[in-house]
Amino acid sequence: MIQFKKIALVLLLFLGISINAQNTYKRWPDIISKNDAAWFGSAEAKKIAENVLLYQRNIGGWPKNIQMQDELTEKQQNDLIAIKKTSAETTTDNGATCQEMLFMSRMYAQIKDERYKESFIKGLNYLLEAQYPNGGWPQFYPLKKGYYTHITYNDDSMVNIMNVIKAVADETEYYSVKPSKDIVEKCQKAFDKGIDCILKTQYKQNGVLTAWCAQHDEVTLAPANARAFELVSLSGYESAKIVLLLMSIEKPSREIVTAVKSAVEWFEKTKITNLEEKRILNDAGKIVDKKMIPATNAKPIWARFMDLETNEPFFCDRDGIKKKSIDQIGAERRNGYSWYSEAPQEVLKRFPDWAVKNGTKGGAAEKKIVNYITVAQDGSGDFAKIQDAVYATPAFPYQKVTIFIKNGIYNEKVRIPEWNNNVILKGESKENTIITFDDNFSKIALGRNSTFYTYTLLVEGDDCTVSNLTVKNSSGERGQAIALSVVGNRVKITNCNLLGNQDTLYLSGKETKQYFKDCYIEGTTDFIFGGATALFENCIIHSIKSSYITAASTPEGTFFGFVFKNCKLTANPEAKDVYLGRPWRVYAKTVFINCEMGKQIKPEGWENWSKPEAEKKAFYAEYNCTGEGFQPSKRVSWSHQLSKKEVGEYSIENILKDKNVNWYSN
């Protein structure tokens, strides 16, 4: 008897564990996605499946935001049976229909109940029937008046549908239900039409492809409003899932490759790294407030709503009035809506490998290592765009990769990322190989740091070389507008024209070394600025108007800042009062050695930028310069004239030495 009681107790404990192991998820989507396969053969799952079958309308779709696992009363069951014929509120919004189809597929994998299979097929036919002739899908079908008829990317509605029909069209094992060949062919055609719609709705800013809006008009394909607080805008969140869908396509067309690359460039341009979201919770763990707080080098985020022309983030309350910050709208919308997203991070994470795989001419799926790439606008090279060539270079190569650019005017914004080090960007000729773009501070409109996004060419990769070409910011005198931005270490720029106005050349990095040789650099105000250690040899430094040549921000404790050796300082006739430099930060260091200075250089030479402390902390000096502009006796008292012994420290080896000692002579 005692032994029997022990066995009974063990059985009770086992049964208790089994009961506790049953589904504990409270959200319907979690029940579908988080339970293991075996659970879908349980009595609990079969009971829920009866509810799901009841909620499905005869047309094949389901309503949204239903907790299908909740027990139904007899009256509720009868009510659902009564409205089955009506197709009331059938939709794909908030994951509806697509998620129920997945549930039925997982049920059918465990229990071969033909009702589950039939339910899945009805749902699939519903999705196919709901598609517009132009390839898009509305939010509700049958159509519901209002913004619900728009082609809907919002909350991934159309992407969810296309992922379903793609899995069916590709005859994958994702769904346990295997439709007929006829339905498979319909899915392939529907998917192709959907991709065509996606490509046609990608928004262009001044002719440049960017991203997508949450809704597009079902007839014109133009961006469209939804709810009062969902105004026409480019979407940081929805666009990410669209791009991931495009990247999932094997052997993408040239148009798909272009769409992906253009969207990635837009994501890079619009990412926010100086803000973090802080959520304030009550004792129950519910969000009671959201605040955006300033941060340094924060994890990238993107705004959900961005202006169609300026990319500036905006926020709306139910009054439909645009606001510039989240704290300007009421608590109900501020805390009850997702205004920022991290979703594009996944795109940027996957993109380098995708670009290698799909970066060859015509989008062929080749994965090969290349060491020499040719860019030519006439189609005679490997690529017609410089950025496409950069995308095709291997990440962190063991040897140099040369991108040779034939003569032409390349109107594009080019970025050599940190992972594309060892790149040689070489033009056919300095005069006729021209990279140009027209971004400026006001056009970028991303807040006080907009300057740094205005570059025409950005070099982030270490050990890169740029030679024999022109880099131009063509925006004119419209404020800060960078032509060349160099962030990488051991970067060499030779025989190049660097053309712009204010802020032509930005040199960044606390411990970076950069070398400019035989270059022509022109601008207006602070047109050579930044914190890097940089040597300029045999360069022409040309001032377009009276202003400042340099604005160094040399970090404290750095021995060298900007050093100009054997350079020539020239100017337009109207530029009569030019300063050698002023301190962007108080520890600025700038030295001119053996330079020829035109008469445009002001006798005092340097200016403190209304920073008296810079007169003690900055280091401005000259040695053995010539020309009408070299007037050492009239320089400001806090500048220096180097002695012969002191100038001996300014050798190329001392200035540019790094782990690779001779990098600058290669």
From TrEMBL:
Pathway(s) per entry: Glycan metabolism; pectin degradation; 2-dehydro-3-deoxy-D-gluconate from pectin: step 1/5
Origin superkingdom: Bacteria
Record's keyword annotation contains Translocase: no
E.C. designation(s): 3.1.1.11
PROSITE patterns from the UniProt entry: PECTINESTERASE_1, PECTINESTERASE_2
Catalytic activity, reaction form: [(1->4)-alpha-D-galacturonosyl methyl ester](n) + n H2O = [(1->4)-alpha-D-galacturonosyl](n) + n methanol + n H(+)
Family: Belongs to the pectinesterase family.
UniProt-recorded name of the protein: Pectinesterase
Lineage of producing organism: Bacteria, Pseudomonadati, Bacteroidota, Flavobacteriia, Flavobacteriales
